[in-house]
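Input record (one chain):
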Amino acid sequence: MIEELGSYYIWAHDRYRKVMSDLSDEEFERVDQKVGKSVRQLVTHMILITAYSYMDEDSVVELSERVAGSDKGSLLLLWKEVDLQMADTLKSMSTERTRMIQTPTGDKQAEVPEDLYFLSFTDHNTFHRGQLLSMLKSLGRPGISSDLFYYCFERGGWQDTPSEGNS
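The corresponding structure, as predicted from the sequence alone:
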């Protein structure tokens, strides 16, 4: 199941990347008063938290430097690249392995199964897609549905689950 989640993740973000590619530079950089960030800042955060799920800390720091110097088009391409790598990482994920998680302050840690670890990143990005939707709508852009059910409707179901007659 978690491997298919990577395809959903890319599908959902592609829907946003398509709309964002049409934003002017001013719209991309404008801070939304409700969210407190610009589209650029939120996309940057989404890129880095996704990368954090599979990269070591030094690589994330290096990526953040690339992100800082990117124009809108390059940033959207980099976002896709990071999403593809995360989805590829999910293919080698194991339910037998665990990962350590910690609070942002580092004062608490917990060990969680690897599939739950990756699920937390996809869940967190779902929250941010909601923020992006609000921001895009305030810019007069169309609403975007990235709900998992729409992904399933578009693809004819969840791909790693055998349909009747295929088992």
